[in-house]
Amino acid sequence: MSGDAWIRRFHPVSDAPTRLVCFPHAGGSATFYFPVSRVLSPEIDVIAIQYPGRQDRRSESCVDSIGELADIIAAHLEPLADKPISLFGHSMGAMVAFEVARRMEKGGTQPLALFASGRRAPSCHRDERVHLASDDGLIDELKSLSGTDSAVLGDEEILRMILPSVRSDYKAVETYRYQEGPLLNCPITVLTGDNDPMVTAREAQAWANHTNGRFDLKVYPGGHFFINDHATAAMRLIRAAAGSRAVLAA
């Protein structure tokens, strides 16, 4: 924990050469990245973002705009730019991470790398309106993507507790519209599942159009939450990429 409500450090590392900032998926929280922090520390200082409206921030109003989230988070990351920073986001988190990277580069700080997982490129729009569905419809969506613990889906009280943040996050994602602007200069690595209903191969490849830097695409077996089954491989990739690029940036 830190004194900043947006920042979570589960395994604080003061002397790591680089930092990794992790952005949760829709309805997700910072604790989703506790295992990532445990594995990558102490080589990398892992930071997880905690959006308002969930867990210890449940009493706070949710933010239902990707742009507004990115504005706030980019400002909170400014004091942490004394070391090279890589960004990782899954699903909605990938969009927030992308917009944070744009703001960082506009402010003069180039991220070491952007890892975008389980999300189509920002310029690939689909007309989706899940955030307007009934509570039961929203729950059906969560079940179909298999990203929420089965114990949670079977507990009516917990479900009703998290649905407001889930709905707000879906609204943020579904109302997001990419605004033309300078391409990123940082490299982008995209991770995707080969059976993800939310991302086609073409939509994953389209991330290449958003950077002047290197682009890599990694495809894994699985659906939208393929990352749960391939966490070890993904963290190996992040460790290698962040480490080598930190050396180059030094």
Describe the structure.
The protein is α/β, with parallel strands linked by helices. It has one domain: 3-Layer(aba) Sandwich (Rossmann fold), CATH 3.40.50. 37% of the residues lie in helices and 14% in strands. The protein has helices at residues 34-40, 66-77, 92-106, 135-145, 150-153, 156-174, 201-205, 231-249; strands at 7-8, 19-23, 45-49, 85-90, 113-117, 188-193, 215-220. A seven-stranded mixed β-sheet has the order 1-3-2-4-5-6-7, with helices on both faces. The longest helix has 19 residues, at 156-174. The radius of gyration is 17 Å and the shape is globular. It starts with 6 loop residues before the first strand and ends with a helix. This is Surfactin synthase thioesterase subunit.
